Amino acid sequence: MTSFIGAPIGRVDGRAKVTGAATYAAEFRPPGLVYAALATSSIAAGQLTALHTAAAERAPGVLLVLTHLNAGKLPYQSPAARAAVDPVAGEQLRVLQDARIFFSGQPIAVVVAETQAQATYAAALVRATYAVDTSARTQFDPAQARPTSLAAAKRGRGPETRQGDPDTALAAAPVQVDQRYVQPRMHHQAMEPHATIAHWQGEQLTLWSKSQWVGNERDAIALVFGIPAANVRVINPYVGGAFGSALRTWPHVTLATLAARRAGRPVLLELTREQLFYSIGFRPRTEQRVALGAEATGQLTAIVHEAVGQTSTYEEFAEATLDVPAVTYACPNRRTSYRLVDMHTNTPCPMRGPGHVTGLLVQEIAMDELAAALQLDPLELRLRNFAERDFRKDLPWSSNQLRACYQAGAERFGWQRRTPTPGSMRAGSLRMGLGMATALNPAPRYPIQASATLLPDGTIVVRSATSDMGPGTYTSATQVAADTLGVPLGRVRFELGDSALPPAKEHGGSTTMASVGPAVQAACQDLRRQLDMLAGRPVDLTTTDLPGLLRHAGLLQLQASGSAGPNATPPTHSTYGFGAVFAEVHVDPDLGIVRVARLVGAYDAGRIINPRLARSQCLGGMVGGIGMALMEEATWDPRFGRVLNANLADYHVPVNADVHELDVLFVPSEEPLMNPLGVKGLAELGLCGVAPAIANAVWHATGKRVRELPITVDKLL
Ligand code: MOS
């Protein structure tokens, strides 16, 4: 039996996805299904004074119009039952519970009708009048920023961390860089919109609902409605991309559930593309100052990194923006501070490497600025400040192949051909620029349970309530199971996305392979042990008559279970994924158009279970990084507290024509301490470092340092 670990297996769910057999949240069709549509607030702050729903109620096919006037009080039990992915302070939006308006785009009515078109039409007939709060905070003003709460501080997102005497060291440093950087509000833009189908059968509630964490959605809705979690089942076998947007349970899930209970029919509520800018979260705008002090040798002597993020007025979403800057480089004097601006907007949420990616983004641009000031090669500067351990936590790395990443990436890219002077390289009539950045992403893991069941026909079903939003959990978990059991892949079926399965934590934070993988391995090892005991000898699962063995033992099936994680506390080591990203850009000197001609990323993500899927994840990260560097930006209108480009035509993301040569390398690596599979998780690591490498390459091509992303043509002319 060949090993499946490390094999480039194609997606086991690939056929179902490309033939349309895969069923997404909005595609289930319980009998009697009816359709919902939202009416939303057109003001950013204030009170509803009147709601005119008569026209909507009279419209064809309409069954129900729900507003705060007839929705009834929902229990909203204990906000203490906050999930790990929820904001640490504040109170979730209690939708349709009163007349208060906290942000533009807030749902104010739900219309249920026999068809989607009827519901959408009738929702457009709902008219509202408001008492507008003229002191609404719709302008991002860093001067208004406040320190984070105690709860956030406890999670390491405190207002300030300090080592040594950074301000004195900065002032004394012979070479200094001190700049401000802005990264705009961004939206996830998953292909599949968020959708929930709610179906009550007596006291039992089934939700088919887009989710990266079905167990959490079950618990969250049970608390909102004050019902036992055991009465709720959340099912979501396929997710069409989510990028963090489906970690939380958003208000539309509550609305679908409420509407279904009132209508006495199953209800589908699918958000429109525009509603996705308001009814779920987003990556918050962040303004940062980075000040670096160094000796003439390039040795860092001081790092000051201050970040101001944004949150809503009703919840505190605090990001780990300064986690990565606190550990990337060796430096004796370091200070970080993190503050928040409360605004009349919907609450932000994790998006593609929340915090980590944006803190790293500006750090790596600042490092490039320092290299230029020192007249030192940017890669050499990073090598001279290599962190031999996690100095912040004073822990050794569990594994660290960053030097190998630098070397392999530079070699593959041809970094040595870079001439230092900006604008000194050409690609035909275009300016060529080469830039690089370090990538670093924390690699935690969560406690996960899994089961492995031998069925009478010899199939082994492995189950865990995790998710697969695209990275390939179905496939990699199948590989781990088949490998552990010593059976062909086709004998294993992996099931996920159902809260009735053995509990898992969020499919996020680049944790799934490192968390679910070992649990699957443990469950399959347990199944092997049980079979060996039944047979009274070690069993070869490919040659043994397993159905016969079951029959002989008088069993219909044989079930085993396993669990894994979390890491030991207090931690003995610090675990991160590492990488080095190199970018070549071509810039039209007359038009300012930037083409990312080539990206090379070299990564240390521990053992790679499936190099084909791992490469695919990094390609996705690179495409996301092109968007972050050059395109992605929600244009915010501070007069109304709304996004001006709340659609996929005006909110730009990279398309095929924007994507050229992408090259992904994995350096040999095994994580010996964190889990028995030797993996560190990949995912968000693939986005880390891409945008700053591109930004640095644009500077090298043009001599223009753009510190407010995205780098659009107007900023280069
Ligand atoms: Mo990711 S932002 O943890 O889904």
Overall description:
Residues 19-134 form the Aldehyde oxidase/xanthine dehydrogenase a/b hammerhead domain. Pfam families: Ald_Xan_dh_C, MoCoBD_1, MoCoBD_2. Residues 139-168 are annotated as: Disordered. The chain is α+β, with helices and mostly antiparallel strands. It folds into 3 domains: 28-134 and 197-242 and 246-277, Aldehyde oxidase/xanthine dehydrogenase, a/b hammerhead (Aldehyde Oxidoreductase, domain 3); 142-186 and 282-443 and 572-716, Aldehyde Oxidoreductase, domain 4 (2-Layer Sandwich), CATH 3.30.365; 445-564, Aldehyde Oxidoreductase, domain 4 (2-Layer Sandwich), CATH 3.30.365. The protein is 25% helix and 25% strand. It contains 16 helices and 29 strands. A 7-stranded mixed sheet has the order 3-6-1-14-11-12-13. Strands 8, 9, 10, 15, 16 and 18 form a 6-stranded mixed sheet that branches. The longest helix has 24 residues, at 512-535. The model has no long low-confidence stretch (mean pLDDT 96). Bound molecules: dioxothiomolybdenum(VI) ion. Dioxothiomolybdenum(VI) ion is lined by residues 212, 243-244, 247, 350-352, 354, 508-509. Dioxothiomolybdenum(VI) ion (MOS) is lined by residues 212, 243-244, 247, 350-352, 354, 508-509.
